[in-house]
Structure prediction request, 75 residues.
Amino acid sequence: MAILTSYKTDAKIADEFIVERSTVTKIFQRKDKYLNLADEETTCKKPRIQLGYLSLVEETLFKWYIIATKSANIA
Prediction:
């Protein structure tokens, strides 16, 4: 956020991030929109990741597979 409060020109910022000057200009024009999106994301519900019914079996099988491939030198 230090860039937003600095007195650099759009061209200098574009050179710093190796992008076109017009890209920097568009970002500053839409700054409020982007900041509001960040606020909305923190307030919306995040989906929960549901584990499968057999997650313990799957985890154990995966661990067995890792051990088996290491001991058999299978890539």
